[in-house]
Each structure stands twice: as C-alpha cells, then as structure tokens.
Design brief:
Number of helices: 23
Largest sheet: none
Strand content: under 5%
Distance between the termini: 61 Å
C-alpha cells in the first residue's frame, strides 16, 4: 500500500506541468484569496483587498516564488488598481498617486545617496585602501587582527552595503588565510566575525540597512521627527556593542595556536582612469561633506534627502561614476523598500490596521509586546529578507501599539539586523559560507546568542529611552 502511494507521488511529480516556483505562486494566491473571503463580511472592499495584498506579499516574500523586488512592483500596481472603494473593474483608486509616490520618498533618496557613496568608494578602491590602513592599527596578534577586521567591516557597513563590504573584506582576508593552517579555528573566527560585523554594523546609521530606512519612514509618516543623527545616537553604540560582544564570543569559542599573523600589503590595486588619486580625494571630500551635513541637519535645516544628492551629483559630474556603472546600483533594493512603504501605507489608509488591531488581545505591559515583536522579527529575518520582514511588521506593529509607535518601529527595525543563525539569513553569511571553510552548524553559536540576546538588549534599551 505504501509503495503504491509513493509511486503515485513520484508519478505526479514527474508529470506535473508547472515548475516549483509557479506552483508556489499559485498556492500562495489561492491561500491569500481564501483568507480574504474569511473577512469579506466584516470589512469593506478596499480593506479586504488590502488584507489579500498583505497575505499575498508576505507569502511571496517567504516562499521566494518570485524575486523580492518583483513583489514590490506587484504591491504598487495592486494598490493603484484595487484599493479604492469602487468595485467597478477598470477604475483605479482615487488616491492612486500616494501609492506610487513612495518611489520618490525621502527615504528612497537617502538610500540612493548611500548607494552612490558606496559605489564611488568601490570604483576608486578607496574602500580597500581605507580598510588596510585601519587594519594596520591592530597589530599582528590573531585576536587583535580579528577585532580590526570586525570593526572595519562594521564601520564601513554603516555607510555602505553590508554585502559589498563583506565581499571586499573577504577579498582582503584571502592572502591572510593562506598563511594560516587550514584546520586552525581562527579561519572560522575571521570569516564569522566579518559576516556578523557586516550585518550588525548596518545598525549604526539610517543608510546602513534597508530596515532602518523603512523604520524612519514609518516614524515620519506618523508625524514624528526622527533625524539621521537621532538614529546614530543609539544606533552606533548598539552596533559597536554587538561587534565587541561577537568578538568576545568568537575569541573564546575558536582558540588558535597562531601567535602572529602578517598582513600582506604587496597586492597591487587595479589601475584605470577612474581609480586615480584625484578621484579618491573627491570621494573623501564628498564623504566628509555628506556625512557632516547629515549629522548636522538640525543646525542648517537642509533636509537629509536633499543632502543625499551631493554624492550623486559630485560623482557623476566628476566622472567617477559613469553611465555604465549605474547598473551596479542595487535598484532592486530601492524597489523593495518602496514596495514596503506602499504596503505600510495601504494597511493604514484602508483601515486594515484598525481591523487587525481589534483581533489581537491587548497586553497590559507594552514591554511584553515589544519583546514579542522583536523575537518574531528576528525569527522571520532568519528565513526571509529582513527588508521584507520590516516591511510587513513595522506598519502592523505601529498600529497594534499606537501609543508606542516610535518604540515598536525601532525594535523591529533593529531586531531585523540580529538574524545570523543560518547561512541564508543574510548576504554576508552567504558570502563567507561560499568560501568552503564553514559548515551550517558554525553559524548557530553566534546566531543563537545574538538573535535572542540581541533582541533582549534592544528591547531593554528602547524601553528605557522611549517608553
């Protein structure tokens, strides 16, 4: 009997006409449609459609049936056509412009400025020169060098893509790894340290990680002022604390027999007409000017989004970034963030948030709610995009605890960067896992402690300052 059942399953698999991703897409669509039908009697047309959109987008992000950026495009298109009160086919929402205007949100412009800064640093190879100079300050002792790599990665990740930063630091690590015995635990410590620092380093600034930008965007959408400097005041200390905490854990987990490690400085950098001393000087000046204006926006009152155009203009006019280089900008990430902002707007504007709030039991203690939100964020971020996780949970949480919108948004935005448990949890993890020196189990030690302990620390800090 069992053999015939298994034979039937094998036959169905062999003759199923659809690919796995298309099958997942259909399943998610049907489930979302069925769930929409469960509330159709309790809400209006637009709210029911917003609920369908929320479930459908979350399902697609979790299953990765289609690329994450494509989900965002779907969100924007769906919101324009199906979130109005009129049920007549062919009519778009009366307020359709608000759903597409998220693409020009100040948060998108801030991220774009950060991406241009990162690309300019990569093209001129200023990032590599900077990292080598910094690393030379930490000597040749194994754990001192480990700390140097982690701090350098973390600091760069505050202003650059953590994926690009980790890839660069892994390249810098390669000649050092060659001089270390292959079975020495220090190799694992170095790779895990770089990946972890790349992820938690993004906590330090608004542009360090897309969930940070989504968080600030949601806070500002609720009429509260929260500046670039406001984020860094608590973001940088939390980021550095996590880096030191991970360094301490790695130091005691991976004991090395090495007593001294030499940094190879003989590797020459690629030379071309974009990678020149003049261009590197322009990059440094642009970095100092842009970051300085970001941090002092309360003094000169120039919006942070406007300041973000400085690297865009400087690097294109000077020829550091050319038309052929624009393809290296992660436009898909900008689309993902825009889609997340649109989803949050749809949940709020259609009244879905209020409906969902009414179905959730109230917590007398807001700290319990914040802790639950933090842990749920961490868990979801380990198995799906942390940007997608933040896009779903931040709008909902701000409505669930309306008296603590700021605190709830910050907890989710920060906890989204504590997902380190799996090789697929973050791009930095995937990069170091691809080197072949690490097993999946190697990520669990740091991932478990930072995931749970980091969430507790973040909730404690946010509770002290914002409750």
């Amino acid at each position: 009997m069992a053999d015939s059942r298994f034979a039937s399953i094998r036959y169905i698999r062999a003759h199923w006409p659809l690919t796995p991703k298309v099958s997942l897409l259909i399943i998610v669509f049907i489930v979302s449609l069925l769930l929409r039908q469960t509330i159709i009697e309790s809400v209006d047309y637009a709210t029911a459609n917003a609920f369908f959109l929320l479930v459908f987008a979350a399902g697609l992000w979790i299953t990765e049936a289609i690329p994450p950026f494509a989900v965002s495009i779907l969100i924007i298109g769906f919101a324009m056509y199906f979130l109005g009160d009129v049920q007549t086919p062919g009519l778009i929402s009366e307020n359709w412009k608000q759903y597409i205007n998220t693409w020009s949100s100040p948060i998108i412009l801030i991220l774009m400025g950060g991406f241009f800064m990162a690309l300019g640093a990569q093209i001129t190879q200023f990032d590599r020169k900077f990292s080598r100079v910094v690393l030379s300050w930490f000597g040749t002792k194994p754990y001192g060098l480990l700390l140097g790599f982690m701090l350098t990665t973390g600091i760069l990740s505050m202003f650059m893509s953590n994926t690009a930063t980790t890839a660069m630091m892994v390249a810098v690590l390669i000649p050092i790894i060659r001089d270390i015995p292959k079975r020495d635990p220090l190799i694992k410590a170095l790779y895990l340290g770089v990946a972890s620092a790349g992820t938690v380093g993004g906590i330090g600034s608004v542009i360090g990680s897309p969930p940070n930008a989504i968080t600030v965007g949601n806070i500002q959408n609720h009429g509260m002022e929260f500046t670039f400097l406001d984020w860094m005041i608590f973001g940088v200390p939390i980021s550095l604390f996590f880096i030191l905490m991970i360094w301490f854990l790695l130091k005691h987990r991976f004991k090395t027999a090495c007593t001294e490690i030499k940094i190879q400085n003989s590797e020459s950098l690629e030379q071309n007409d974009q990678n020149t001393l003049r261009n590197r000087i322009i990059v440094v000046i642009t970095f100092v000017l842009t970051i300085g204006l970001w941090l002092t926006s309360n003094i000169h009152h120039i919006p942070v989004a406007v300041v973000s155009f400085i690297p865009v203009v400087f690097f294109t006019v000077s020829g550091i970034i050319r038309a052929a280089d624009l393809g290296r900008i992660p436009w898909d990430t900008l689309l993902l963030v825009a889609g997340g902002l649109t989803l949050g707007l749809a949940i709020t504007e259609t009244g879905l948030a209020h409906f969902l709030i009414s179905k959730i039991p109230a917590f007398n203690n807001p700290i319990y709610m914040l802790l639950l939100l933090g842990l749920v964020t961490m868990l979801f971020s380990n198995i799906m995009s942390n940007t997608a996780t933040a896009s779903i949970l931040i709008p909902l949480s701000a409505s669930i605890v309306p008296d603590y919108t700021l605190a709830a948004s910050l907890v989710i935005g920060l906890c989204a960067s504590t997902a380190l448990f799996l090789p697929i949890s973050t791009p930095p993890n995937a990069i170091v896992y691809s080197t072949g020196y690490l097993k999946q189990s190697d990520f669990r030690y740091i991932g478990g402690i930072i995931g749970i302990g980091g969430s507790l620390i973040i909730v404690t800090i946010i509770s002290i300052f914002y409750l």
